[in-house]
Amino acid sequence: MTSGPQLAPNSAAETATSIPRHLRYTWDHEWLVVDEGDATVGITAFAAQALGDVVHLRLPEVGTWVEAGESCGEIKSLTAVSGLYAPASGRVLEVNPVLADDPGAVNSAPYTGGWLFRLRVENIAGALTPDAYAAHCAHTQGDRR
């Protein structure tokens, strides 16, 4: 596997108000980008900010099948525990090795170095465009579904 995908087209600051245009999003604040049938998955800056400092991640194991919209892991911060939901169905190819030693990368670089896992996509259901996701964030006011 690679050392990680190149996710951001530029080095713009990753804030809760920055919603990269090249990604697709879920109602549960995960993002994905598909390249030649493989998807890279992470949580959005909006979610990372709402969670606070991430201290532990339980990610799906390599080789595991995940189903779109179903729970596939957990994110623990200093103040909350949140479920992680697969934005697409497929087999997990890789988990981000950086996160084992630095789960806070999810907070500091949610769209680049803080990606969570990669999977071979079989089905994507209900992915939101950046504009639809921005509208969703405006209505949720920081609450995760």
What is the topology?
Layout: E1 24-25, E2 30-35, E3 38-43, H1 45-51, E4 54-58, E5 65-66, E6 71-77, E7 81-85, E8 88-95, H2 98-101, H3 105-108, E9 117-124, H4 130-140
Antiparallel strand pairs: 1-2, 2-3, 3-9, 4-6, 5-8, 6-7, 8-9
Percentage of residues in helical conformation: 10-25%
The proportion of strand residues reads 25-35%
Give the uncertain stretches in residue-range form.
1-6, 8-16
Overall 3D form: globular
Number of strands: 9
Biggest pleated-sheet summary: 6 strands, antiparallel
Q: Note the gap between the termini.
A: 32 Å
Structure description:
The structure is a single chain. The chain is α+β, with helices and mostly antiparallel strands. It is built from 4 helices and 9 strands; from the N terminus they run E-E-E-H-E-E-E-E-E-H-H-E-H. The chain has helices spanning 45-51, 98-101, 105-108, 130-140; strands spanning 24-25, 30-35, 38-43, 54-58, 65-66, 71-77, 81-85, 88-95, 117-124. A hairpin with a 4-residue loop joins strand 1 (24-25) and strand 2. It is globular, with a radius of gyration of 14 Å. The model is unreliable at 1-6 and 8-16 (pLDDT under 50).
